[in-house]
Design goal:
This protein is an alpha/beta fold. The protein is 43% helix and 15% strand. The longest helix is centred in the N-terminal third of the chain and has 26 residues, at 16-41. 42% of the residues are buried. The structure holds 2-acetamido-2-deoxy-beta-D-glucopyranose.
């Protein structure tokens, strides 16, 4: 009879059994909701991942965002990407109060050869020789479709301020245009144009930057753009000042083989599930989403029009250390390529383009790129892209610092501040800063 104590109050006309029924049904509804929500949130995670519950919550939020976005798109309300952008920027506003303030860093929004960039200048006057400072050109991640630094106090803005402050460096974050409004090669071309403009001696001089100490860097899709731009700048004889280091944080480096051991192992690990990665590729390449199954198909890699020499550039049976291959085997050889014939016309040429897939570059090109830092996470579909690139750069004679996080997951570096922060994200930022501090 206890429930009546709380709700019996003014209900003179409601019979006791009626109230009991209402109470019971609300208990049942609550129970169903609780089970439903728990089921939605729960994702089995490897034991090595710290703070699993927090990651499950973050992942559920991302999935919900994608699903509501898809629903909006189905109903013809808007493309799902602008919706997701709006939600993320709303969440980042929540974090603004807690964002790491870097009082002295001067921020200005300008254009580099018509590409909008945000320039962070450190407080201290001068630095090294003759008052010259180091510099980092940074490309943010977000699947070539999301993300921006100009959102004040967003995670990328906080990272760039911290870099500028701690390294006493000029940091230039490039606001390249995004999918679905534009697609490949526009993102790449924006990044390249901004890089060429920045590296002009006159521009470096105006910002008091030491031309011997300019890094190019980026995370995830930004790591893809950084690697591709680093290659192009290295071989372009019209550019006299070159990048002196490249720092790639869990970069995407190829889209031909989405069945590497890391794709197999981590296909369902938050927050970059394998099917989401494939969707970002399709968005970037500007091709129809109906090609999603084709991109994921293991037989794609064995298409007869792919020259064996190119295929060897991403042959993980040769390029990965055994401890990362584990028990995984190449899949799909036996399926042949019949099923993909005829549909691949839109996809293959771009996926074979080194501007989209820097892992496929020739050794001679790789050998001209600067010293590298490559961060990889064990629990990331992109782990093997980074590890294979490490190996290919080393084979080409480039010095590579490979920082592998055994407990890392994709995107962790963007989650080092309230409301979503992970210890591993903080450690990654520390390691990245320390490497730049010593090597730039
Ligand atoms: C990768 O290399 C191995 C060993 O050299 C070879 O047997 C295999 O066919 C290659 N795989 C592909 C996809 O080319």
């Amino acid at each position: 009879m206890l429930p009546f104590v709380f709700c019996g109050g003014g209900g003179a006309n409601v019979s006791n059994t009626g109230v009991l029924k209402m109470k019971l049904s609300s208990v049942v509804v609550t129970l169903i909701l609780t089970v439903g929500v728990s089921y939605y949130i729960y994702t089995p995670l490897p034991a090595a991942i710290e703070e699993p519950l927090k990651l499950m919550l973050l992942d559920a939020l991302f999935r919900a965002m994608l699903q509501v976005g898809d629903l909006c798109q189905c109903l013809g309300l808007s493309h799902h990407i602008p919706w997701i952008r709006g939600t993320i920027s709303g969440l980042e506003t929540l974090g603004e109060m807690a964002g790491g303030q870097r009082g002295g860093v001067r921020v200005s929004d300008v254009d580099f050869d018509r590409v909008p960039v945000r320039v962070y200048e450190p407080p201290a006057a001068g630095g090294g020789e003759g008052g010259l400072r180091r510099a980092v050109m940074f490309y943010h991640g977000g699947g070539w479709a999301l993300g921006a630094t100009s959102k004040c106090m967003g995670s990328y803005d906080v990272l760039c301020r911290q870099m500028s402050d701690e390294l006493n460096a000029v940091v230039v974050s490039v606001e390249y245009r995004l999918a679905p409004e534009v697609h490949f090669p526009v993102q790449y071309e924006d990044c390249l144009a901004a890089a060429k403009h920045f590296l002009e001696p006159g521009i470096l001089g105006k910002l008091s930057v030491d031309p011997q100490r300019v890094a190019v860097s980026g995370d995830s899709a930004g790591g893809n753009l950084a690697a591709a731009v680093a290659q192009q700048i290295s071989i372009d004889d019209s550019v006299s000042v070159k990048f002196s280091v490249q720092a790639l944080i869990y970069p995407v480096l190829q889209g031909l083989d989405l069945n590497t051991p890391s794709h197999q192992q981590n296909h369902n690990i938050p927050i970059l599930h394998r099917f989401i990665m494939a969707r970002f590729w399709l968005l970037y390449l500007g091709v129809d989403t109906s090609l999603h199954p084709l991109l994921l198909s293991p037989s794609f890699l064995h298409h007869p029009s792919i020259p064996p020499s190119l295929r060897s550039h991403l042959n993980w049976t040769n390029l990965l250390p055994a401890k990362h291959i584990k028990h995984y085997k190449p899949v799909g050889m036996e399926m042949g390529s019949q099923e993909v014939m005829g549909q691949e016309g839109n996809l293959l040429p771009v996926l074979l383009d080194v501007r989209a897939a820097p892992l496929l570059a020739e050794q001679g090109v790789l050998g001209r790129t600067p010293r590298a830092y490559i961060l990889t996470c064990e629990y990331d579909v992109l782990r093997d892209d980074g590890l294979m690139y490490t190996r290919r750069l080393q084979d080409a004679g480039v010095t590579v610092s490979s920082h592998h996080y055994d407990d890392g997951f994709h995107g962790a570096l963007s989650f080092a501040h309230w409301p979503f922060f992970f210890d591993v994200g903080k450690r990654m930022i520390r390691g990245y800063m320390d490497w730049l501090q010593e090597n730039l």
